[in-house]
Amino acid sequence: MPNSLGNHAIVLGAGMAGLAAAQVLSKYFSKVTILERDVLSGDPLPRSGTPQASHAHALLAGGLRALQSLFPDFERDLLSAGAVQTCAGKEIRLERPGFDPFPSRDLGFEIFFMSRPLLESVTRRRVQENPNIEIRTRHRATEIVASADGLRVEAVRCETDEGGTIKIDAEFVVEATGRGSLTLQLLDRLGLEKPRETEIGIDQAYSTTIVERPRDPETSWTGVMVLPSAPASSRGGFLFPIEKQQWIVSIGGNHGDAPPGDMEGFLDFVKSFRTSTIYDALKSARPTAGIVRFRLPASTRRHYENLESFPAGLLTTGDALCRFNPVFGQGMSVAAREAVVLDGLLQDGVPMDQLAQQFFAAVQPTIETPWGVAQSDFVYPDTRGVRPTDFEQRMQYNIALTKLAAEDFEVHKLLAEVQHLLKPQSALREPALAKRVMALAEA
Ligand SMILES: Cc1cc2nc3c(=O)[nH]c(=O)nc-3n(C[C@H](O)[C@H](O)[C@H](O)COP(=O)(O)OP(=O)(O)OC[C@H]3O[C@@H](n4cnc5c(N)ncnc54)[C@H](O)[C@@H]3O)c2cc1C
What we know:
- By secondary structure, this protein is α/β, with parallel strands linked by helices.
- It is built from 13 helices and 17 strands.
- The strands form four sheets. A seven-stranded mixed sheet has the order 4-12-13-14-11-15-17, sandwiched between helices.
- The mean pLDDT is about 95.
- The site of flavin-adenine dinucleotide has 36 residues, from helix 1, strand 7, strand 15 and helix 8.
């Protein structure tokens, strides 16, 4: 029942996870306050709190569907802000080893491309339409405060622009700061066990530029994805259409093979790809932005679901819960889907003192499929972490599945639906399909 859970909830961080969580909480709390350390512009601009936002950000169809369910007519808003609508499987050329390109087919769903600042600003605008949500910018949260008995959360301390520290009371707090360190600090202070972390150490490096997109393209595609020839090389790149008739081009490598930060080096790196598609598109394109770089050491999953004790009235979500190697384009979509899971639990009337345990358990299926995708980084011998024992079999299965998908429309569609988080990974192991895949693998 709306506004039935309490007077005040606080969300820490106005990134994609925080905005989606605040939208959900606004249905159940009289007031929701988002505390954000950055200044937020009305325009879609990069900002220091989300340095990754200058790099290509794909929104998977499963993430779009989640956002559309939280913000009705979200697609319409994206389009009117300048996002580029494309037909999945058809307009973005996919190049992967053995298939340069992979067969192009209309897979029956749409994908929207835009810069991350544009996506975030559209989402933020929708959140700000709620009369009971307030975004307080330049408020850096410094501490989540628990009750004297340590059983529940009751406030947040934050530093304001004026340099002072204030304490704001709340019955419910969601940490969506990306790093998630405030929850870990609270657990430490309360003497509670911290979540175990699983890491896939990949040392992923990115370089990105933005260029003008030709109005009369000579190509049949609007964007390109070049997947690496793993394990021999981790080099790959994305060239995605974004607003204002531009392409955003992100290129990357891992385990020390970092793309350079100058245009000449950037082009040389692109030239070393298996195909010349991105190089040909880029070589005479006019840049509209300089080159920016980013490094991410590891995919990190925090196993909050295994904790025996956790303070009531607190959740973590988004990257603070699980961070993925960005090359798979999953983080924002997972964050949006986690908010939908939270909404479902609140609708079902899960009591506040059981919410955290139930939430952390209920999001596991949402995390499982993208985490399985992130585990494919174990194909590189230098990847740190615990390699799944059946990794070789999984890789062989995936190679045969890809071959089958190239031949068969239905399998191609199913594979894309799983990659877009519209279906779980288990859909690729259904007995009838598995039989065909195994026959191909053993041929
Ligand atoms: C190079 C790169 C490329 C990526 N590409 C993709 C992609 O293609 N598709 C995709 O889905 N994902 C992609 N991701 C991942 C995606 O950026 C994250 O998964 C997503 O941003 C997570 O959202 P979040 O809200 O949890 O964290 P963030 O977006 O990082 O937001 C955290 C927010 O919290 C604020 N904050 C931090 N600390 C405090 C504090 N103490 N007090 C108040 N506010 C605070 C920050 O300013 C920020 O606004 C990419 C990541 C990287 C690094």
